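Course assignment 3, question 2. Fill in each field.
Student: A.L.
Task: Predict the tertiary structure for the chain below.
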Amino acid sequence: MTTPGRSPSSGSEAVHEPVLVREVVSLLRPHAGGLYVDGTVGLGGHTAALLDAGAGRVIGLDRDQAALAVARERLRWAGERVTLLHADYRELGEVLAARAVTRADGVLMDLGVSSLQIDDPARGFSFRERGPLDMRMDQSSGETLSERLAAVDEETLADVIWRFGEERHSRRVARAILAARDRDELHDTADLARAVRRGAGRGQWQRLDPATRTFQALRIWVNDELERLEPCLESTGGLLSAGGRLAVIAFHSLEDRIVKHTFRRLATDGSVFTLVTRRAIRPEEDEVSGNPRARSARLRVLERAA
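Answer field:
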């Protein structure tokens, strides 16, 4: 998205297309004097839209320092209205407390992988390009995929691929990956994708590359993406002002299921929270045609009533 009234830039920033922007702005209802949090700022698209729509101030967090560098450049025009921090959205409570912030008028969490991460082979997220076995969203900490695969056993790996990728041939795929590792044939993402396809079998090739589910599972595993998501949603709801809203964009069924069930439980536990979206909001056809990566996005919104 090119921010209204701003000139487009080059590089990764120019091709970045945040999803469901119109819907996010409409549902978070930014206003002058309001404080909003973008828990996964990425390249700054949603933050820019909130500021343009009148948000008084936005605090943006991201685990990816490369993305933050792009976002800082893109949002330089906003001056003191925006604060960008290297932090995990699951640390939101601590981050706000450190800045003496006790309430926010709106919080957005976009749980997807950014175009910057997917399109850069050096990050190791894509099975379509040769890159290192990394997959960390925060390259300043944590184990790489290579380090995790070096120590994992077949049963654990198969469980990861099944739980996080819903790959029905998880055991065969895990066996093929570790066989390649033990033969010293697992050096990059191209080698990994080859091993996954070998394990899945040729009969599984339809519209979806067999590596898709396993690469998703391994990315979730490396970044602990589903860990603490539910308690994070609960604690974030507690940080909202009366009338404040929490908006979450999920991209696969596992995380969307957690968001849906957590929101519903919070909305039925008492009169504190209400569901703004009874069903997940999906992108319109025109958005998907212009940005195919948006097709799996699902937006849910919760409001603090009191």
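Instructor remarks: The first helix runs from residue 12 to 15. Confidence is low (pLDDT under 50) at residues 1-15.
Grade: pending
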